[in-house]
Amino acid sequence: ISERGLGVSAFTFASLLSGVASIGSIRKGEQIHSQVVKLGLSCNQPVCNALISMYSKCGSIDTASRVFNLMEDRNVISWTSMITGFAKHGLAKGVLETFNQMTEDGVKPNEVTYVAILSACSHVGLVSEGWRHFKSMYKDHKIKPRMEHYACMVDLLCRSGLLTDAFDFINSMPFQADVLVWRTFLGACRVHINTELGEMAARKILELDPNEPAAYIQLSNIYASAGKWEESAEMREKMKERNLVKEGGCSWIEVGDKVHKFYVGDTSHPNAHRIYNELERLIREIKRCGYVPNTDLVLHQLEEENGEAEKERLLYQHSEKIAVAFGLISTGKSRPVRVFKNLRVCGDCHNAMKYITTVSGREIVLRDLNRFHHFKDG
């Protein structure tokens, strides 16, 4: 735009940064940031707010924090963007300290601020702290909790293993829980293999949306984890009858000016041979360091003969492992490997990343559906 002699406003840059953040392209974000500085807009409040959000969503929370700290004029969006960034990166201390500083400066939080605070409490298991902030919303700021805030509290209780408390909390809500709340609860039932509550949650979801694939998938996984293979297969069959399809796992990474996508077991990349050689090498090395594949997470009934080996092979083909292997052979050793995924990272991949960052000496930043996961030196 600027090359054609057209005026570029702060609003234009804020919009561009928002678009860059949506695809996780930190290189393009850095290029736009340099243009912002050249044009003397680095102190513009809306632009700075957009920069904080962009760097946070692209996995560079330290840069987001630097932009925030250099701001002289902050509004509620500035504070909330920084708090949300810390929350997405699992940095509860940063969330709570920034929130305290915000209130000390006399800035009134809004609904979005509290979503970030409750989310941060959830990810690190601060149950008492979460309850305190939830109750203070209306008491101190006259903000009525919305569905998102109730969903955060359900997630907080579920992550702490308090499924019965979470179930009672859902039933005490002042309005009917939506699909998101019940999906959160159902996911916890899968983690804790609670078939009774899982069945109840799935029924609630299907009452609200009979074509919600997550209800069938999660309940099928709960049955499989409990060894109820017939019930698990029945749920999968019901999905087929309704022509429902599970969303496939996809991970992507930016190298140079190109975004590379990978799917489960993907061999379509031009460098697939090199990628899988690197992945096999990594698996050998991390096994020597103590990594043990969690084959319990492979919820398929396989033949006894070679069953464990086949389960390990399926785990190694997860899209995030492939993307990380590609990142290690395609990026400079001084830069973190930043991978994005459309679904939640599985427990085995999370554990494997701890070992991979140790044997490779590289920092790995993995963003999944919920948050960022940082891996450095194990």
TrEMBL record:
A GO MF label: zinc ion binding
Pfam families per the UniProt record, alphabetical: DYW_deaminase, E_motif, Eplus_motif, PPR, PPR_2
InterPro entries the record matches: DYW_dom, E2_motif, E_motif, PPR_At4g14850-like_plant, PPR_rpt, TPR-like_helical_dom_sf
Record domain DYW: where: 290-378
One of the GO BP terms on file: RNA modification
Family the entry assigns: Belongs to the PPR family. PCMP-H subfamily.
Lineage: Eukaryota, Viridiplantae, Streptophyta, Embryophyta, Tracheophyta
SUPFAM superfamilies, sorted: TPR-like (SSF48452)
Signal sequence annotation: 1-22
Official protein name in the record: Pentatricopeptide repeat-containing protein, chloroplastic
UniProt organism field: Noccaea caerulescens (Alpine penny-cress)
PPR repeat coordinates: 44-74, 75-109
UniProt entry tagged with the keyword Repeat: yes
